[in-house]
Every structure is written in structure tokens, then in C-alpha cells.
From TrEMBL:
GO function terms (MF aspect): DNA binding
Top-level taxon: Bacteria
Entry protein name: Uncharacterized protein
Family annotation (InterPro entries): Lambda_DNA-bd_dom_sf
Length: 130
């Protein structure tokens, strides 16, 4: 049993449910999971509100751009838990606008930087986005 857990979710995958993948593919999957964990912990509710302010976006525009509901954005920025996929969708959307996020700092503008957050549309739980 492979188990991943954080404050937002508790996901379990049966080891035999994973296809018999080549070692290189498994390493790629491990890297993807690691990048998701990093993105989840470094993108904070304060970052979200600060990034919206930097871009001149209200919650409605962020909702349209990220496919995350206004209610979920409000909950996240107020410090309540949201699903991992929701948090990743917000980070991915804002990074696509050239913003970068580091713990303890306000968002910065990256020059020719592709964000580190993986595209959440590739996650099996994308349909659960809030």
C-alpha cells in the first residue's frame, strides 16, 4: 500500500493497482509526486491573495482562469482546508502568469521561469476540484 498524506487529504493507492511500470517511469512518477508536495506546502493562502492583488484580479477572475469556484478561493484565502487538486490549480494558474512562490516571501515575478507546479489536470482527482 502506498500512502500519501498531508493536512488536506489522505490518499491511499494499492500497490497492485499501479501498473507494472519501467523503473524510469516510476522515477518520473516519484518526481511528479515530490513536485506536487513542494507546491502544496510552499503556496499559502497569503500567497494567493497577494498574487491576485499583484495581477489586479478579483476572485471572480481567478475563478475563471483556474476553474476553481469563488467559494473555494474564499475558503482557501481565509485559511480553511481545500483539496490538494484545488490548491495546485490555483498555484498552477498564478505561476502561468509569471509569478513564483517561496515560503515566507511575497510572490515574485519570474523572468522566463516556468512554474514548478505540475499541471493539476493530469491528476486522477482533477474531477474533484472545488
Amino acid at each position: 500500500m502506498i500512502r500519501t498524506q498531508n493536512n488536506c487529504t489522505n490518499i491511499q493507492y494499492k500497490a497492485n493497482a499501479l501498473p507494472n511500470l519501467p523503473e524510469k517511469t516510476m522515477a518520473s512518477l516519484a518526481m511528479k509526486i515530490t513536485l506536487e508536495r513542494i507546491a502544496l506546502y510552499q503556496f499559502t493562502p497569503q500567497h494567493c491573495a497577494q498574487a491576485r492583488d499583484m495581477l489586479g484580479w478579483d476572485m471572480d477572475q481567478l475563478s475563471r482562469e483556474s476553474a476553481v469556484s469563488v467559494q473555494a478561493i474564499q475558503r482557501f484565502e481565509a485559511g480553511y482546508e481545500v483539496r490538494d487538486v484545488t490548491r495546485l490549480a490555483l498555484a498552477f494558474c498564478l505561476e502561468a502568469q509569471g509569478l513564483v512562490f517561496f515560503p515566507g516571501f511575497t510572490p515574485g515575478r519570474g523572468m522566463n521561469i516556468k512554474g514548478a507546479t505540475p499541471n493539476p489536470m493530469e491528476r486522477p482527482d482533477y474531477a474533484l476540484i472545488e
